[in-house]
TrEMBL record:
Pfam family, one: Aminotran_1_2
Molecular functions (GO terms): pyridoxal phosphate binding; transaminase activity
Protein name, as recorded: Transaminase
InterPro entries named in the record: Aminotransferase_I/II_large, LL-DAP_aminotransferase, PyrdxlP-dep_Trfase, PyrdxlP-dep_Trfase_major, PyrdxlP-dep_Trfase_small
CDD domains: AAT_like
SUPFAM superfamilies given in the database record: PLP-dependent transferases
Length: 394
């Protein structure tokens, strides 16, 4: 069989980080190990029955049997605008400030492609969600990494960015509540980000994937709520986490009209639109009751607090995250993120995500998800305790 050379830009891409983790977990499961998967980021709670019913009704509607409109159905764009007004008290024009996308994962790639020419600079935090780095490579952009640490609440310091980098930068990706750290943005932080971006004509791309998931009294902040937030950037939103609809691949982008217009052109040429019946289901999700959203958040919060308190009780010095579906734990002395993840999988059949996969600043961390039932998290704590790694409980 003939062998064909892949394009240089594809050669530059790493193997998907999460698929590698899944392969290791599946190999353990195949030999009979009872693996507690705390590496996954896929929501485990069911989609609201009202949303399911809306999609079931929509799938037999003949209007959903042909191609959907290139820019998305008007009803769901109107619903996005209503949702932002209801939840964030933000006015969004559904005609010019909303773009429906076939998953927010698509928008993570599509927005940089829309705004960057080869060689342009993009600002990314380190650590960050790995697809941001892949998106930058696909756009053939120059990456400047903004280190974030516990000492800065995992928020970048814009004053530390060299002047020549700031001048060259065209796009800045932010993500709060953050994957992997669980940090949240504050009004003061967003104000600084907007001032910095406006000074250097940088488009802010805020990935708001975990918009509905704040813990212990924390309510995540939308960039669009900030003065000039909409003027200076866009916000990416997904149905996957807020509405437990990961399999349906629905997302949207809201914000700056010039970016939305460019994204519409790019998306309509590069991707297919979300099926019409899913758009109709999302209309129900966005305009209907949010009781299930809050109920799910409380489940995640209970799980997080159970896990953190259990680990603290066995002597592991960890803290609860403020949002997202993850906690970001510093590993014990003598380990790296990767070696500790391997140790937990081999010795306790617990899967976590090594911090190195999110950037060099994650080398001493692991990302731990709360996407297992509480009893499995209690079992995970017991297995870790049995390893005898930690000193006296606090």
């Amino acid at each position: 069989m003939a062998q064909f050379e892949m394009a240089d830009v594809v050669k530059s891409l790493p193997i998907n980080y999460f698929s590698e983790i899944d392969d290791r977990i599946n190999a353990k499961i195949k030999v009979g190990d009872d693996v507690i998967d705390l590496a996954s980021g896929s929501p485990d709670l069911a989609t609201d029955p009202a949303i399911q019913a809306a999609m079931q009704a929509a799938i037999i509607d003949p209007s959903n049997h042909s191609y959907p409109p290139f820019m998305g159905k008007d009803n769901v764009k109107d619903a996005v605008a209503q949702f932002y007004k209801r939840v964030y008290d933000v006015e969004i024009d559904p005609a010019t400030e909303v773009m429906i996308v076939s998953s927010s994962g698509v928008s993570v790639v599509a927005v940089p492609q829309t705004l960057l020419n080869p060689g342009d600079t993009i600002l990314l935090t380190n650590p960050a969600y790995p697809p941001y780095f892949a998106a930058a490579k696909l756009a053939q952009a120059t990456i400047y990494e903004m280190p974030v640490t516990a000492e800065t609440d995992f928020l970048p310091d814009f004053d530390a960015i060299p002047e020549e980098v700031a001048v060259a930068a065209k796009v800045m990706m932010l993500n709060y509540p953050n994957n992997p750290t669980g940090a949240v943005a504050t009004p003061v932080f967003f104000e600084k980000a907007i001032r910095f971006a406006a000074k250097y004509q940088i488009a802010i791309v805020h990935d708001f994937a975990y918009a509905a998931i704040g813990y212990n009294g924390v309510t995540p902040l939308s960039l669009m709520q900030m003065k000039d937030g909409k003027a200076q950037g866009v916000e990416l939103y997904t149905a996957s986490k807020t509405f437990s609809m990961a399999d349906y691949r629905f997302g949207f982008v809201v914000g700056n009209a010039s970016i939305i217009a460019a994204l519409k052109n790019y998306h309509s040429n590069a991707y297919t639109m979300v099926p019409g019946f899913i758009q109709d289901g999302m209309t129900q999700a966005l305009t209907g009751s949010l009781e299930q959203v809050e109920a799910n958040r409380l489940v995640y919060e209970t799980r997080l607090n159970t896990l953190v308190k259990g680990l603290q009780a066995i002597g592991w010095s960890v803290e609860a995250s403020k949002g997202s579906l993850f906690a970001w734990f510093k590993v014990p002395d003598g380990f790296t993120g990767a070696s500790f993840a391997n140790y937990l999988l081999d010795e306790a059949q617990i899967a976590v995500a090594p911090g190195e996969g999110f950037g060099s600043m994650g080398a001493n961390y692991v990302r731990v998800s709360v996407l297992q039932p509480t009893e499995r998290l209690v079992e995970a704590v017991a297995r870790i305790a049995a390893l005898g790694l930690f000193g006296e409980a606090r």
